[in-house]
Amino acid sequence: MDEQWWTDDDRLLEVLQDALASANDVPPSLVAAGKAVYAWRTIDAELAALTYDSAWESEAVDVTRTGETAALRRLTFASDQVSIELELTADELLGQLSPPQGGTVSLAAGSDDLGTTPVDEFGFFVVRPVPNRPFRITCRTDSGTTVTTGLVSP
């Protein structure tokens, strides 16, 4: 067979592979637009206002356990429908909804979804580990209420 024919065929396959590979690349502007649209998914959520932060009073409260000191920060976010009380340590985020009710809690940092955890029928939830960057909490109760907090800085 003619050597030129194989060379042209190989070149054609290379060009086709390059075309298919570049077709799978998503333009950065499209990614940014997608993230912006995704951020609007909770636009109907009620914004819970920060009504208490233990950091306002002084440094974080020191709690002594068997000779070790742990920093504990307490926060309260309130809306017309639900209050979210949080206790933030280095290892975990403990929370309770008031009035007590079940549902789910989702954490997000910017447009990054950090996960979802269930809220039991008493309104309690635990998140481990604590995100290492500022995050928002969105609570969706079993009764249909959706509430989003402002940013929480760990």
UniProtKB/TrEMBL annotation:
Which top-rank group of organisms is this from? Bacteria
Q: What is the recorded name of this protein?
A: Uncharacterized protein
Q: Which organism is it from?
A: Kribbella italica
